[in-house]
Amino acid sequence: MTAEHIMHQLTLAEVTEKVQELPSLPGIVMDILNQIDDDTLDIQILVEKVSSDAALTAKTLHYANSAYFSTMVKVTTVQQAISLMGLSATKQIILAAGLAGCFPENNCPGFSHKDFWRHSNAVAIAARLLAKRLQINPDVAYTAGLLHDIGALVLVTQFPEQYAATIAYRHAEGISQFDAERYMIGIDHAAVGEALAELWSFSEVMKHAIAGHHFPEKPGLGFLATVIHVANGIAHALGVTTTPDKQRIEVSAQSWESLQMSAEAIDQLMTATIDELHKLDQIEV
Fold first, then answer.
1. How far is CA 284 from CA 59, 67, 114, 196, in A?
2. Closest among 40, 262, 261, 257 to 139, alpha carbons compared
3. Closest Cα to residue 145, out of 246, 213, 247, 240?
4. Whole-angstrom distance, CA of residue 213 vs CA of residue 233
5. pLDDT tens, 181-206?
6. Do the Cβ atoms of 211 and 195 come closer than 8 Å?
7. Which of 52, 117, 241, 258 is the most buried (most CB within 10 A)?
């Protein structure tokens, strides 16, 4: 594909204007994002807020009654579900369900929402496992992993024609989606994700992790961006999507070195990531 096939180059101002057309996140999701590193979250308040949202209640009970949690007794209330799954898992389920509800599916040819969320879950799991080894907050790392590619959903939802052409170009040229975006539409999903994070009032550390997950060495991004960068590379290396993952995702040597993990430890982490992902497969979405 040659230069004449390049789509209209989007500006950050154009994207930001379209981002404002997206629905707001549910209040409970915003509460969790703002308190993601707070282990003192009042469970009773969480129960009340989830119970007041029919879609989140249904999703929470669905997860609690799945084979993943192997309960012998049917869970029928949000209180029971949280007691069974634990606060951390419940917050993760609510976040995923709330985010998915903001972006309509099947409006962009070539884009698979199922593959998107499977990859995002793999990055989130790998990030949480890395965080535990590195003794940083695993819930924050998991959430950043889940959100790292959120800018792609903005582009898919708000600019479906341009993004479909970008996907086609990526496949034709065998390059990363990030590079295809920069070439075809003049902006990348990391920058768009940062704009969305600003609009939705995410924390600074979360915004930096989203913005820098491809190039975490840029000054001021913080260590979480490095963790997500490595977790993203691990997820691509594992090839967790239903369609072949041919993207060439390179993890920077500086990022590997900063983690100070042996090859054996990385292999163990990759095995643990795929094991956790397979457990999630027991839950029918």
1. 11, 9, 12, 29
2. 40
3. 213
4. 10
5. 999 999 999 999 999 999 888 999 99
6. no
7. 117
